[in-house]
Amino acid sequence: MIKPDHAEPGPSAPVPVSSSVLPPRSAALIVDKASPEEEELVLSDWSDDNCEGSSLSSNIENNASLAAAKKVEALKAPQGGCNFRPQENRSHPRIAGTTSGHLSELQGRPPLQNVRKSSEFVGANGQAAKRRSSALNISGLDAGTAECDGGILKNRPKSSKIDSGIPGFPSLANTAVQYLARVKEVYDYNVYRIFDDIRKKDFKLSIETFRSNTQLEIGTRIRLFEPKLVDSETLAITNDNGVMIVEPMTLVSSTTLVQALFCKRKAVFTEKFRSSGTNIQMTLGNVCHDLFQQALRRRPKVISDTWFLADFRNHILPKLALDLLALDVSATDFEAQLRPYLSNITKWMRDHMPGPLGNAKPLVDGTVIDDIEDIEMNIWSAGIGVKGKIDVAIRNTHGRVIPLELKTGKSNANKDHHAQVLMYIAMMSELSDGYLDPGLLLYLKDGTSRPVKPGPYELKDILATRNGMAGFAGHLTLDAFPDPLPDTRFCDKCQYETHCTVIQQLAPPKNVTTVMANYAKEKTNHLKAEDLEYARNWLKWAFQEWAISSKRHSNKSIFDLSAVEREQNGTTITNLTLANVEKANKMSPHSSFLLEFRRRDRSPLPASVLELSDVVTISTAEAIAVQSGVVNERTDNSIIVKADKELGKRLRDNRNNVYTLDKYESSSSYSMNLNSVIAITTNTPSAARLREAVIALKPPSRRTMPAVELESISSSTATLSETQKGAIIAALTAEEYALIQGFPGSGKTSTIVALVQYLVALGKSVLITAYTNSAVDNMLLRLRKVVPEEKLLRIGGNASTSRHPEMGQMTLDSRIGQLKGSKNLVGDARALLKSFPVVGTTCLTAGNHSYFEWRPKFDYVIVDEAALCLQSAIIKPLLLGHRFVLVGDPCQLEPLVISTEAKEAGMAVSLMERLEPVAAQANCLVRLNEQYRMNDQICALSSDLFYDGLLRCANETIANQVIDHMGIEKENLPPNFLPDDLLKLLLSQNKSDSVIFIDTQSRGIGSSVFEKAQSTTASKSNRGEVELIAKMCKVFTLAEVPASSIGTMSTYRSQVEELRKLVPLGIETNTVDQYQGRDKDVILVSFVHTSDSGDDSKMGGGILSERRLNVALTRAKKKLILVGCVESLKQFEVMSKLLGKVGCIYKYSSF
């Protein structure tokens, strides 16, 4: 059991730390079983470097023999990549800039053997306790006699100290003198009252350093490393003492951080907008990185320029074709620019890699490579609030693991490159023993290599810049951007020039020079006041939406909560073992990897957690987010994650690792929406034209179609209804745009297919887009039946797309794969990819894929399910075509908006809804009101409630269809299964019984099973309704209604999960939203809500909105069964209207 030390520490003593409240920032270090003599010698010689504040029990013997000392001196370097520093040589020679001094110190250091990491330690009671911070523990000690103080072993030697090796800079691994606090009060500028979560007490904090330019607010979270302890109640951060990290759980990218050293505003734009795009230097850099890392992974017998060139041609060039097309660079020209880099890579590897690949010559810092610890090493540090990927992690022959950063630019002294490596050094020290080893920079253009030696002041300067970045990155508002540079010399070359100047007009900076203000005004002169207002609203709403989402689904929980707690919240699966690893493509050395995880105890995985195509982070007990990937396959007992690379060597070698998968909430869709808003403000003819239609609401126009074309359409669309033909004519004659409103079951997909078929016949090009991958895939599969497959191209997609056998040949990778062996790959790819008249992709991919950067504009852009798309998501696709057609139904589901403020202000108004009145007046709107799905009893509900009686059956056959079944013998049912009269209603083939509302009477006597819906923070369920619906489903299946013809749905995800557990196998159960565009012969709807389930406003305003109810009522073809409490539901206006139109309300009693 952990025993806290209640003695009040003096000014020179660290305040005791309780590890139970420290987030799991990094891993603990554990030295495996050693002899008592080895333990003593190691711990005495290394007493200043016991990681994370560890100390020793006083019962360790102090008489080490000379033989034991020699034995420890002979120990080899640690395999775990953890770093240690000896007790001697406290004044570090690196400060004086002498590499030889550092090398001699390393040579005099006895490395440790068998070092591994853990996130648990053994408490005084002998039980494993959860460790949420790092510490050095020695296995084999008597756990019963080693007292623990807040996760730190007591009675350690007085000289024990964790040291960074840099005078004036604290160890980032010493949790004993760290504080994780929130600001409670602001006394004065840079004087605060804080509450330390670790020690559970208040402190006064004084910021006395010129480096602090971030004003803290009440509630701001901070981490302090070794602050000056003025007295037992007062801490200070001075120029020489301590480091403060503001909002440490906000991880700033290391590459973005170094941008801030030149222009903080551009760095924040990079974090929030993340614009796509490439240039020749970026592309060369990516290729060189890939080749360098492939050589390290594969270790060819002979390394040469020829080997690299062959690898480039065979495996990289085919994937690079699109980038070269966008850059308008031929493969031959690119190779010519690449060759000098290959020569330098070859020379470096021959010189410095260990044999047999190289000659193991010393690096520029004097050390020698022992092995490669990891490639593309992913680190998330909630200690200093930085994340990054280290190109190569090298383990040298002294057992130290150091970062090697590859650069393809000029080798002139560059503070950005230097700063980036410094952050890697800091993060790696935090994960190990806190000692700051130097790193390396390798410039592949000329082969120059430079050591990067950390100094206290430059580290503090960079972290101060990081604090300022975190303040801006964490505030998702239109005005949360740094002031622009005073000079405009570099602005015209910046990829964020439009972003910067537009936002200067929308949210004027506090400090801006006249030169910069005039520049911004000049660059935005083409925009009218209404254009700026539109951009202001949509940028503001997008930020509001992002802010709400980040609070609900924050990736910060990975630091704040244990893996078990996160799994209970439904975002994580833990206690996993790595069951299998294999290449996704066994024929390619550059293949991604499939990592299969299973429960260590072989138990089933939790349902509905981590679904197909979810992005996940992979963590171990050692470290958070060691890798990321995408869920590629999911079964009850296993989950397969597709990752770009294998796990690091240290992880692969440890088969006892416990893995955790966390759903990663990507913010990329918010960045894409923000960029889309900026796109409509650009000074281009296509953007100006779109502004007229979307912002100014200029009425669209139509051309007159010649009689010959009209006759041609009539003959080729004989199977379509008159309204469907009218929709096609409206689209073909549109000069700017046309809208097609497809009522439920009205055949809008058939209309789109016929339209595209006709456009292809006319020689037109078409971009088909929708908000979801499934909608795009379904449309292309339908088109494949009438348009030759060689005319169809799929850009992007998810796991379902890649696994679909019929989609495989249409994908971009498959198409480019057809050019394998081409001697003119880029030219042939251009010709091939331009030849496809029909291209399908999602709205967001259309605005972010390099294919669309060089391809000529499409004649038509068709957006399916347009009423589901945010305006900001649809802008970029519309800019890719000369005219557009929006297809959807504003009376069904609207765009998903979670911010109440943004929704009420207008964010949920789709572009289709916005343009509908204007298009109707200009005769550019066609309504498909003849439906081919529901019988007339079901159809009448939706028609009367939502379409003013306009929705009607297309023919008598549709109108009169009823359920078809083989009947059921009552003796095949358990006794008292369901009342006889209810059984009769369920299987009735009278059309008048097609719609049944089963009143659960939750307010009635004896109906307690339905009385209260179980509520969680996110959703609700009603066990009584689940059991009743499961029984009714069983009745239908016993009557030989195919399970595939039956569907159950609910507005609540929790209810859906409960239904899936009980309904017969083969019956599809989903939320109402997931059922849009789908149908079944029989649909059963669970409304869940009762008078005791609470949150009536949420129920009426969103969960059961008119549009969502419309979708629920229009999925059934022949039988619609609604289940809920009439008394509880009729308080909502839309439900009251529905109940008034349902002819059959059955009063159900569970007794």
Automatic annotation (TrEMBL):
<keyword id="KW-0408">Iron</keyword>
<dbReference type="GO" id="GO:0017108">
    <property type="term" value="F:5'-flap endonuclease activity"/>
</dbReference>
<dbReference type="GO" id="GO:0017116">
    <property type="term" value="F:single-stranded DNA helicase activity"/>
</dbReference>
<dbReference type="GO" id="GO:0005694">
    <property type="term" value="C:chromosome"/>
</dbReference>
<dbReference type="GO" id="GO:0033567">
    <property type="term" value="P:DNA replication, Okazaki fragment processing"/>
</dbReference>
<feature type="region of interest" description="Disordered">
    <location>
        <begin position="1"/>
        <end position="22"/>
    </location>
</feature>
<keyword id="KW-0540">Nuclease</keyword>
<comment type="function">
    <text>Key enzyme involved in DNA replication and DNA repair. Involved in Okazaki fragments processing by cleaving long flaps that escape FEN1: flaps that are longer than 27 nucleotides are coated by replication protein A complex (RPA), leading to recruit DNA2 which cleaves the flap until it is too short to bind RPA and becomes a substrate for FEN1. Also involved in 5'-end resection of DNA during double-strand break (DSB) repair by mediating the cleavage of 5'-ssDNA.</text>
</comment>
<keyword id="KW-0227">DNA damage</keyword>
<feature type="region of interest" description="Disordered">
    <location>
        <begin position="79"/>
        <end position="116"/>
    </location>
</feature>
<protein>
    <recommendedName>
        <fullName>DNA replication ATP-dependent helicase/nuclease</fullName>
        <ecNumber>3.1.-.-</ecNumber>
        <ecNumber>3.6.4.12</ecNumber>
    </recommendedName>
</protein>
<keyword id="KW-0235">DNA replication</keyword>
<keyword id="KW-0238">DNA-binding</keyword>
<keyword id="KW-0067">ATP-binding</keyword>
<dbReference type="InterPro" id="IPR045055">
    <property type="entry name" value="DNA2/NAM7-like"/>
</dbReference>
<keyword id="KW-0511">Multifunctional enzyme</keyword>
<feature type="domain" description="DNA replication factor Dna2 N-terminal">
    <location>
        <begin position="212"/>
        <end position="395"/>
    </location>
</feature>
<keyword id="KW-0158">Chromosome</keyword>
<dbReference type="GO" id="GO:0051539">
    <property type="term" value="F:4 iron, 4 sulfur cluster binding"/>
</dbReference>
<dbReference type="InterPro" id="IPR041677">
    <property type="entry name" value="DNA2/NAM7_AAA_11"/>
</dbReference>
<dbReference type="InterPro" id="IPR011604">
    <property type="entry name" value="PDDEXK-like_dom_sf"/>
</dbReference>
<dbReference type="GO" id="GO:0005634">
    <property type="term" value="C:nucleus"/>
</dbReference>
<keyword id="KW-0004">4Fe-4S</keyword>
<dbReference type="InterPro" id="IPR041679">
    <property type="entry name" value="DNA2/NAM7-like_C"/>
</dbReference>
<dbReference type="Pfam" id="PF08696">
    <property type="entry name" value="Dna2"/>
</dbReference>
<comment type="similarity">
    <text>Belongs to the DNA2/NAM7 helicase family.</text>
</comment>
<dbReference type="InterPro" id="IPR014808">
    <property type="entry name" value="DNA_replication_fac_Dna2_N"/>
</dbReference>
<dbReference type="GO" id="GO:0006281">
    <property type="term" value="P:DNA repair"/>
</dbReference>
<feature type="domain" description="DNA2/NAM7 helicase-like C-terminal">
    <location>
        <begin position="908"/>
        <end position="1125"/>
    </location>
</feature>
<keyword id="KW-0234">DNA repair</keyword>
<dbReference type="GO" id="GO:0046872">
    <property type="term" value="F:metal ion binding"/>
</dbReference>
<dbReference type="Pfam" id="PF13087">
    <property type="entry name" value="AAA_12"/>
</dbReference>
<feature type="domain" description="DNA2/NAM7 helicase helicase">
    <location>
        <begin position="830"/>
        <end position="899"/>
    </location>
</feature>
<dbReference type="Pfam" id="PF13086">
    <property type="entry name" value="AAA_11"/>
</dbReference>
<keyword id="KW-0479">Metal-binding</keyword>
<dbReference type="GO" id="GO:0005524">
    <property type="term" value="F:ATP binding"/>
</dbReference>
<dbReference type="GO" id="GO:0003677">
    <property type="term" value="F:DNA binding"/>
</dbReference>
<keyword id="KW-0411">Iron-sulfur</keyword>
<keyword id="KW-0378">Hydrolase</keyword>
<keyword id="KW-0547">Nucleotide-binding</keyword>
<keyword id="KW-0539">Nucleus</keyword>
<keyword id="KW-0347">Helicase</keyword>
